[in-house]
Amino acid sequence: MSIQTFMQQEVLLPRLKRHGVLVVYDPARHYRDLCLNLASEELKVIDATDSSIESREEAIRALGELGQHDAVVKELLIYVPAH
């Protein structure tokens, strides 16, 4: 098992399953691809690399979707390349 697979399956995904929302702070930008590769129909990944304002707006919309009864998105991961 690769380190990327271990981090996804043993660290990130269990926390997402347990809490529904996870924010990954990564000032060194080591885990960006790892996080982005988790995106799926049920897991929305928001990348705050380019614009913190736009990603914040996207995160607010996604949180609203999570609260809907018939929501397709079940989990939300927000990637923040900052301290």
Structural description of this entry:
- The protein has 83 residues and is an alpha/beta fold.
- It is 45% helix and 19% strand.
- The chain has a 3-stranded parallel sheet, with helices on both faces.
- The mean pLDDT is 93.
Report the sheet-strand fraction. Answer: 15-25%
What's the rounded overall pLDDT mean? Answer: 93
Main beta-sheet annotation: 3 strands, parallel
The succession of helices and strands, N to C, reads HEHEHE
What order do the strands of the largest sheet run in, or round the barrel if closed?
A: 1-3-2
Radius of gyration, CA atoms, in whole angstroms: 13 Å
End-to-end gap: 29 Å
DSSP helix fraction: 40-55%
Number of strands: 3
Low-pLDDT runs of 5+ residues are none
Tally of individual helices: 3
Structural class: alpha/beta
Q: Name the overall outline.
A: globular
Provide tags for this entry:
3-stranded parallel β-sheet; globular; alpha/beta; 83 residues; 19% strand
Summarize the structure.
By secondary structure, this protein is α/β, with parallel strands linked by helices.
How do the helices and strands line up, and which of them pair or pack?
Elements: H1 3-19, E1 21-25, H2 32-36, E2 43-47, H3 52-66, E3 75-80
Parallel strand pairs: 1-3, 2-3
